[in-house]
Amino acid sequence: MTRQRWTSRAVFILAALGSAVGLGNLWRFPYLAGKYGGGAFLIPYLIALVLVGVPMLILELAVGQKMQQGAVGSYTKLHPRFVGLGILALISSFIIVSYYAVVMAWSLVYLLASLKMNWSGDAEGYFYQKVLQTSNGIEQLGGINLSIFLSLLFVWFSVYFCVWQGTKSVGKVVKYSVPLPVILMSLLLIRAVTLPGFLQGWEMYLQPNWIALLNPEVWTAACSQIFYSLSLAFGIMVAYGSYKDRDDDITQDAWITALLDSGTSIFAGFVVFGVLGYMAWKIGTPLKDLAASGPGLAFVVFPEAISLMPLSKIFSILFFLMLFLLGIDSAFSMVAALNAAVADKYKHISLAQISLVFCLLLLIAGAIYTTRAGLYFLDLVDHFVTSYNLLSIGICQSILVGWVYGAEKMRRYINQVSHWQIGKWWNIAIKYIIPLALVTLLVTQFIQDIKTPYEGYPTWALGIGWTIALLPLLIFLWLLLKDKNKIISIEER
Ligand code: TRP
Question: Residue 490: is its pLDDT beyond 70?
Fold first, then answer.
């Protein structure tokens, strides 16, 4: 059987872009920019894009395309001892997408609630008490919240029908689901600039504070944002790359994807700060107090701001539809990555069956986030996966390709098939810059987490966090160092 293929190059780029462009572009980037130096933040951000993001994206696409396998198969082909790296990436993906889908489920709940919009005046109480019914602490599980769980069921139902035929169904979906949220974002932007106050919002977003660049935290934030936003280190781009022909272009596709992703982030910043500017003007609160990230931005501040606008219901519907659409391509890209790994190994099982099993497992895994303590679990797990798993996988990937397989060898392959030739700088980025940057990030994060336990969660909860961060890594290391004879026999096969 021949491997599945993307129906066209444009479809591949849309799919990769869809994975990259997600909630992170809307609720993470603008906040970081506002917090870390405004317009000046673009400097570390763009430097991280060129030195870390693009080289790593090229690497992942190249590995998948050259080896023609998902993450587990591809990394094993690069070196049999690294069989655990793909597994580590996929476990982390599994964990991330299990809660990412829950955020999409909240968006759906709000999409329906937009018809009534009875959060005006108390958006905060509405989100935490009415919608999530959040308990007083992580130890009070309080049972599953049915409306969120049903909504989550619908999310997994939708994801299933996006991936069940692999590139064929994904190809059909991304033609709509990737451009549409950007169009919706543009409508929100038009709304914002036709209201007073937006310019003050933009001023806060863009006014450069050059001094901020002296703070190392700004650089680490830029670096991790790039990594997270491009969906790197989860085996996604490897899997997507593996559905391209061996002699397809790599470098151009990577640049196009990366630049459009960052462009969307910058664009989203205008929308977010434009709307916040209007809200600050309308209720007379200082802008600084409104700037928020994560769920607080999307489900408290934004709904409140929208409720103050003329034609609020329409814009509320557009906004939550946009959130859902932003999320879905990222969510199904994970499932596609999981599918690829299993389908490589078990050729007799159909993609439809594999997808069904994963969607069900992910629904079950996500149930914990639909409890009354769901928000706490989501926050905790997100913190540990995105700070540790993401970085450790990134480091291992650059060591594997840069040092074990050989950066130069990979670069020659990339240049053979690509229009744009990459210079020796790529080897330096893969072998030195990326591992050094990521190790620095990892160590800084570790010291911080040891000094002040994250958000003051109880020890058992932090234990879960550390287990998520360390257990997959230990499995990887164990496989790396395991009995050599066995490995040689794999190699001979
Ligand atoms: N790129 C996504 C965003 O910006 C975040 C992300 C990274 C993600 N890896 C993921 C989302 C895996 C879902 C699954 O929002």
Answer: no
How far is the C-alpha of 246 from the C-alpha of 234, rounded, in Å? 21
In this prediction, residue 84 has a pLDDT band, given cuts at 50, 70 and 90, of: very high
Residue 228 beta carbon below 6 angstroms from any ligand 1 atom: yes
Q: Which two tokens stand for residue 170?
A: 């994904």
**Would the CB of 265 count as within 6 Å of ligand 1?**
no
pLDDT of residue 40: 94
Residue 289 pLDDT class (50, 70, 90 cuts): confident
Q: Could you tell me the pTM of the whole model? A: 0.94
CA gap 299, 293 in Å, rounded = 10
- Alpha-carbon dihedral sign for residues 120, 126, 130, 132: positive
Cα radius of gyration rounded to whole Å, the chain: 22
Whether ligand 1 lies within 6 angstroms of the CB of 56 is answered as: no
Residue 229 Cβ < 6 Å to ligand 1: yes
Tell me how far the alpha carbon of residue 438 lies from the centroid of ligand 1, in angstroms. 18
How far apart are alpha carbons 158 and 140 in whole angstroms?
Answer: 31
CA of 236 relative to ligand 1 center, distance in Å: 10
330 lines ligand 1 (CB under 6 A): yes
CA distance 277 to 347: 54
